[in-house]
């Protein structure tokens, strides 16, 4: 503390040694560079650096460590709690590492860590392939994969992390981890035969905890077309029947079909994708749901990349502020749990409030890859997410929006009411206030993950509010 009792400003060393494009306070574009997709959180980093290559990343990590400046890693900028940036530190944004290389003979693809899910789907689709990703196109593929990664191809092809074969990652530990021979940061290649424990950790617990991932190699799957079905019930009055039928059929239907539910205060929407099948086959699989009331049904046969693009909402049309809670469900909800969903959505404080689910089952329980995975929820029937979106991008800051405390409290209460019926959480949708977050995400695996952390980042250079801890705790 200073003599006046105030913390002095952080002194940042010379930034001229940072490689790549560097944006700092006062520069044109700084406000855009420091802002993430979720405007609920806004930090003021000392600098944002955009490396153009893996050696640039190595230099940026070394600079931060030598300068004693905390760092964060940012890909697509969708860290929902704002943890991919920070105040008075260095943000390493890998968005310019956006190459895509596809080996059609080997059925593999290597992508830079800055590639978005939409860009990956489009590039793979042009070559006649697909890989499981999340549904939101602007999310970084690397970030989605390193936390698990699931969407509308998951029951057919497994988690994104199950299809991860190799990773290039910049670690800070030095020569003992196979990095820089001078004890500084260095890039290593990780696969099932090299640094296998690290690969296993990266498959489900890899976001920002062990180093800076710069490239990822995936197994990809031939997929020429899909059949998609969108079913809309214009009233939530049929929720009890729709939800119960969905949860008892969606995780057990043909592995090629994956479906999601999005429930708002005004409607219930089911989105389903059948990999390598036709519309009539998809409709037959969904017959138990289609028999409920008289929903509106839209079907299409199209290439997966085209179908995926159709799911996207222009970023400017999305709410500015978001709050979510993640939950996994391993036993069907009883009627009283479904009644909780109906009750909370009936009193939702904003149009952007919803309850989202994604069916599991299919190949997921058996798809753990060679070398293993840290993803801990293979036995789930479905993933679930109470969430709220509010505010206009470019409008009133979240701190001044009267809906902010109301929406946050609504999501917290909604999640708490469902907690007795759920089991576990998803690190890509972090539960920031959870006391047992580490075991919620990774179960008893946390001790094994901490051992990997100590081996590759013993100085805890890559840390944030819920990074894998050096030592497991209760």
TrEMBL record:
Domain FAD-binding PCMH-type: 41-223
InterPro entries: BBE, FAD-bd_PCMH, FAD-bd_PCMH-like_sf, FAD-bd_PCMH_sub1, FAD-bd_PCMH_sub2, FAD-linked_Oxidoreductase, Oxid_FAD_bind_N, Oxy_OxRdtase_FAD_BS
Gene3D superfamilies documented for this protein: 3.30.465.10, 3.40.462.20, Uridine Diphospho-n-acetylenolpyruvylglucosamine Reductase, domain 2
NAD found in the keyword field: no
Cofactor(s) the protein requires to work: FAD
SUPFAM superfamilies, A to Z: FAD-binding/transporter-associated domain-like
GO molecular function: FAD binding; oxidoreductase activity
Key words of the record: FAD, Flavoprotein, Oxidoreductase
UniProt similarity note: Belongs to the oxygen-dependent FAD-linked oxidoreductase family.
PANTHER family in the record: BINDING OXIDOREDUCTASE, PUTATIVE (AFU_ORTHOLOGUE AFUA_1G17690)-RELATED (PTHR42973), FAD-BINDING PCMH-TYPE DOMAIN-CONTAINING PROTEIN (PTHR42973:SF39)
Name this protein carries in UniProt: FAD-binding protein
Protein source organism: Subtercola boreus
């Amino acid at each position: 503390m200073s003599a006046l009792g105030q913390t002095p400003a952080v002194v940042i060393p010379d930034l001229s040694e940072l490689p790549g494009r560097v944006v700092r306070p006062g520069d044109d574009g700084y406000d855009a560079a420091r802002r993430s997709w979720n405007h609920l959180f806004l930090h003021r980093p000392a600098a944002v650096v955009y490396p153009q290559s893996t050696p640039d990343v190595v230099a940026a990590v070394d600079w931060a460590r030598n300068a004693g400046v905390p760092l964060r890693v940012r890909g697509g900028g969708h860290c929902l709690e704002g943890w991919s940036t920070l105040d008075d530190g260095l943000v390493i944004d890998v968005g310019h590492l956006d190459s895509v290389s596809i080996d059609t003979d080997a059925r593999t693809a290597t992508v830079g860590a800055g590639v978005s899910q939409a860009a990956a789907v489009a590039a793979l689709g042009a070559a006649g392939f697909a890989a499981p990703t999340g549904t939101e196109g602007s999310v970084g593929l690397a970030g989605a994969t390193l936390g698990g990664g699931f969407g509308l191809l998951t029951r057919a092809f497994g988690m994104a992390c199950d299809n991860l074969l190799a990773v290039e990652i910049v670690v800070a530990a030095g020569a003992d981890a196979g990095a820089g021979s001078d004890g500084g940061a260095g890039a290593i290649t990780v696969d099932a035969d090299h640094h296998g424990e690290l690969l296993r950790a990266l498959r489900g617990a890899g976001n920002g905890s062990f180093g800076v991932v710069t490239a990822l190699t995936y197994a990809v799957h031939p997929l020429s077309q899909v059949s998609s079905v969108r079913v809309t019930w214009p009233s939530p009055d049929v929720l009890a029947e729709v939800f119960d039928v969905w949860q008892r059929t969606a995780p057990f239907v043909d592995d090629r079909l994956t479906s999601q539910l999005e429930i708002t205060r005004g409607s219930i929407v089911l989105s389903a994708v059948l990999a390598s099948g036709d519309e009539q086959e998809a409709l037959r699989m969904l017959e138990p749901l289609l028999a409920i009331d008289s929903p509106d049904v839209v079907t299409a046969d199209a290439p997966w990349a085209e179908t995926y693009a159709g799911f996207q909402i222009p970023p400017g049309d999305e709410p500015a502020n978001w709050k979510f809670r993640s939950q996994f469900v391993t036993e069907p909800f009883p009627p009283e749990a479904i009644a909780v969903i109906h009750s909370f959505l009936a009193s939702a404080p904003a149009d952007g409030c919803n309850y989202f689910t994604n069916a599991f089952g299919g190949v997921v329980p058996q798809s753990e890859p060679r070398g293993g995975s840290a993803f801990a929820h293979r036995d789930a029937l479905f993933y679930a997410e109470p969430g709220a979106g509010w505010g206009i991008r470019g409008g009133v800051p979240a701190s001044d929006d009267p809906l902010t405390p109301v929406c946050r409290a609504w999501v917290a209460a909604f999640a708490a009411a469902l907690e007795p019926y759920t089991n576990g959480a998803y690190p890509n949708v972090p539960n920031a206030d959870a006391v047992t977050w580490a075991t919620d995400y990774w179960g008893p695996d946390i001790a094994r993950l901490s051992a990997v952390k100590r081996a590759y980042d013993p100085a805890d250079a890559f840390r944030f509010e819920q990074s894998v801890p050096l030592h497991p705790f209760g």
